[in-house]
Design a protein that fits this description.
By secondary structure, the protein is an alpha+beta fold. The protein is 51% helix and 13% strand. It has 2 domains: 2-92, no CATH class; 104-164, no CATH class. It contains 5 helices and 4 strands, in the order H-H-H-H-H-E-E-E-E. Helix 2 packs antiparallel against helix 3 (42-60) and helix 3 (42-60) runs antiparallel to helix 4 (67-92). The longest helix has 27 residues, at 12-38.
Length: 174
């Protein structure tokens, strides 16, 4: 029954509904295009402007009656299938990098200067951050290899016995 009503939806009311719908769509696309331009996303801005121009041309022209139904699907296909494939292919042609703009030696030197260096024994700790009873910042460290626990503050390092800590399901002191 509703379908039969839609078939008779013609004339000035239908044209007004189409214009209002396209007006809202154009407003949203212009807003998104200006935001993309402001963010420096030129490819996105060009894509949105092309969609805006083509949508108006397809929906206001009588020559492209059949594209009125294909246009939304084609836009989604290009946006969510073709563009990611092209982006992936483009990224695969770039030289492989780790994202650093400095050499490996410079990165190692900076890490050593900042004090972030692995010990020769390769000891690693699981760390839980919190505060002591006096309100001082502290870290509770768990050494899985040797079964030792430490409480460290900004001024001291205290070794704890296993009966002084509560251990969770992952064997980490809490």
């Amino acid at each position: 029954m509703f379908y039969q009503y839609l078939l008779r939806f013609r004339g000035p009311v239908a044209f007004t509904a189409k214009v209002v719908t396209l007006l809202l769509t154009n407003a949203i696309l212009v807003l998104l295009a200006t935001q993309a331009f402001a963010a420096g996303q030129n490819f996105m801005m060009v894509f949105l402007v092309m969609v805006l121009v083509l949508a108006n041309y397809v929906y206001f022209s009588n020559r492209f009656q059949q594209f009125k139904f294909l246009f939304p699907g084609m836009v989604m296909l290009i946006a969510f299938v073709v563009t990611p494939i092209l982006y992936t292919l483009t990224m695969s042609t770039y030289e492989y990098r780790t994202g650093n703009y400095i050499s490996k030696e410079q990165a190692i030197e900076r890490l050593k200067l900042s004090g972030v260096e692995q010990t020769e024994a390769g000891i690693s700790y699981d760390m839980v951050l919190g505060r002591t009873d006096s309100g001082q910042l502290a870290a509770l460290l768990t050494d899985f290899e040797q079964g030792k626990y430490f409480l460290t503050t900004t001024t001291e390092l205290i070794e704890l016995t296993p009966d002084q800590v509560t251990v969770n399901d992952f064997e980490v002191a809490t």
